[in-house]
């Protein structure tokens, strides 16, 4: 573990009740840190289900903290989560875009709100169970006293790397962050959990977004914004009306389900919220050579070049591809791919890499064939 040597340094560990954050807490305790476990209550499910906000998850976190002999607290961030994450999630769908709420949660809740609470508790660091690493120029042990350049790096375990959802990290947040699992594989984490005797060592991972039960986006959105569930015209790429859709919030770029039967396989290629229309086309219509992005952010701060060769990732589970990033201004840019990419989706993040290093990223606004 490449962690700064600060014996007895106070650190807040975000504990979800899962194996990753539990092992992160155990490793920090073993390294001599003064560890305080925090579970964030950000959502109250209508019923008990497997999300990180379930009562069972809080109980699991408490059991782990008790096993490790560290204090554990539950902080109620429901109001802030509603204002900063859920409202954003809903607004994006209303605008015909497909958001990634985990990115916003990391940016505005874990590494902002929780970080501020950590300062109030006298903790210098916030730690999580994310599979990423921190690199830096110079000695990290001097980071408290001196200005050094921090880098956000992919986790060693390629299958578990979570750098995509942390691209918004900056020099200040990295300075105050610890990621104990960055140099471990998931298999090693499971093994470590068992060696520590943690009660969650064999707990299954939750694949759901914490506030969407059973991964049913449609049901959640139908309840929150029923006015956006009204049917509208389904168009072909020539603008001809060929049917009806069920409501724009139920569709995303590249989707096949819910667009009716056709002679050829068809996909959603465009969504127009103001007109309440969904356009379907062939697979070739999904291939785009470039995209536009806004809300640009760079790990190092402002980027010094207007044009740079990068590798770009346009969704969490997609591979990185070669591209050129062209800055339009400080917050807007254009990404030109070496090869056309399929289903570039407005609302998703595009993240820029140089090898293992995360340079930054932004939110996709639109895409073009040429």
What are the defining features of this structure?
3 domains; globular; alpha/beta; Elongation Factor Tu (Ef-tu), domain 3; 6-stranded antiparallel beta barrel; 5-stranded parallel sheet; 370 residues; SH3 type barrels; Rossmann fold; single chain; 23% helix
Top-tier CATH class of the largest domain: Alpha Beta
Radius of gyration, whole Å: 22 Å
Instruction: Please mark out the parts with pLDDT under 50 across 5 or more consecutive residues, or reply none.
Output: none
Strand order of the largest sheet: 12-15-14-13-16-17
Largest sheet: 6 strands, antiparallel, barrel
CATH topology description of the largest domain: Rossmann fold
How big a fraction of the residues is strand?
25-35%
Q: How many structural domains does the protein architecture include?
A: 3
Helix tally? 7
Number of strands: 17
Q: What is the average of the pLDDT values?
A: 92
Order of helices and strands: EHEHEHHEEEHEHHEEEEEEEEEE
Catalytic activity: S-sulfanyl-L-cysteinyl-[protein] + uridine(34) in tRNA + AH2 + ATP = 2-thiouridine(34) in tRNA + L-cysteinyl-[protein] + A + AMP + diphosphate + H(+)
Enzyme class: transferase
Function: Catalyzes the 2-thiolation of uridine at the wobble position (U34) of tRNA, leading to the formation of s(2)U34.
GO molecular function, one term: ATP binding
Overview of this structure, please?
This is tRNA-specific 2-thiouridylase MnmA. ATP binds at residues 14-21, 40, 129. Its main location: cytoplasm. It is found in: Cytoplasm. Keywords: ATP-binding, Cytoplasm, Disulfide bond, Nucleotide-binding, RNA-binding, Transferase, tRNA processing, tRNA-binding. The protein is an alpha/beta fold and 370 residues long. The protein has 3 domains: 10-213, Rossmann fold; 230-281, Adenine nucleotide alpha hydrolases-like domains (SH3 type barrels, Roll); 286-368, Translation factors (Elongation Factor Tu (Ef-tu), domain 3), CATH 2.40.30.10. It has 7 helices and 17 strands. The protein has helices at 19-30, 55-68, 78-94, 101-120, 171-175, 186-195, 217-224; strands at 10-14, 34-41, 72-76, 125-127, 132-136, 150-154, 177-178, 232-235, 241-245, 267-272, 277-281, 287-298, 307-313, 321-327, 333-342, 349-354, 357-368. The protein has a 6-stranded antiparallel β-barrel with strand order 12-15-14-13-16-17. Strands 3-2-1-4-7 form a 5-stranded parallel β-sheet, with helices on both faces. Strands 9-8-11-10 form a 4-stranded mixed β-sheet, with no helix packed on it. The radius of gyration is 22 Å and the shape is globular. 40% of the residues are buried. The mean pLDDT is 92.
């Amino acid at each position: 573990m490449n962690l700064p040597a600060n014996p007895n340094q106070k650190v807040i560990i975000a504990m979800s009740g899962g194996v990753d954050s539990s092992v992160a807490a155990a490793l920090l305790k073993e390294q001599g840190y003064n560890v305080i476990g925090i579970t964030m209550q950000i959502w109250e499910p209508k019923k008990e289900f497997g999300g990180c906000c379930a009562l069972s998850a809080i109980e699991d976190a408490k059991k782990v903290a008790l096993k490790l002999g560290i204090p554990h607290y539950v902080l109620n961030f429901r109001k802030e989560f509603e204002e900063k994450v859920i409202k954003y999630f809903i607004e994006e769908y209303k605008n015909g875009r497909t958001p990634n709420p985990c990115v916003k949660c990391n940016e505005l809740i874990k590494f902002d709100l929780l970080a501020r609470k950590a300062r109030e508790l006298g903790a210098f660091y916030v730690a999580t169970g994310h599979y990423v690493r921190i690199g830096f120029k110079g000695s990290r042990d001097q980071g408290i006293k001196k200005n050094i350049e921090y880098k956000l790096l992919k986790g060693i375990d390629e299958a578990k790397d979570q750098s995509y959802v942390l691209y918004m990290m900056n020099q200040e947040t990295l300075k105050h962050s610890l990621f104990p699992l960055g140099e471990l594989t998931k298999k090693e984490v499971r093994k470590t959990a068992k060696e520590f005797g943690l009660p969650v060592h064999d707990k299954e991972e939750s694949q759901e977004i914490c506030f969407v039960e059973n991964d049913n986006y449609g049901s959640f959105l139908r309840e929150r914004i029923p006015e956006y569930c009204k049917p509208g015209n389904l168009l072909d790429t020539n603008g001809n009306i060929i049917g009806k859709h069920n409501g724009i919030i139920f569709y995303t770029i590249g989707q096949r389900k819910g667009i009716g039967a056709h002679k050829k396989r068809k996909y959603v290629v465009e969504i127009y919220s103001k007109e309440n229309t969904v356009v379907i086309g062939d697979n070739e219509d999904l291939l785009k050579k470039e995209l536009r992005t806004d809300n640009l952010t760079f790990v190092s701060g402002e980027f010094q070049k207007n044009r740079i060769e990068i590798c770009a990732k346009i969704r969490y589970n997609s591979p990185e591809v070669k591209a050129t990033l062209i800055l339009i201004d400080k917050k807007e840019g254009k990404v030109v791919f070496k090869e056309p990419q399929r289903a570039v989706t407005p609302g998703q993040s595009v993240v820029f890499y140089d090898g293992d290093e995360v340079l930054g990223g932004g939110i996709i606004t639109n895409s073009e064939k040429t």
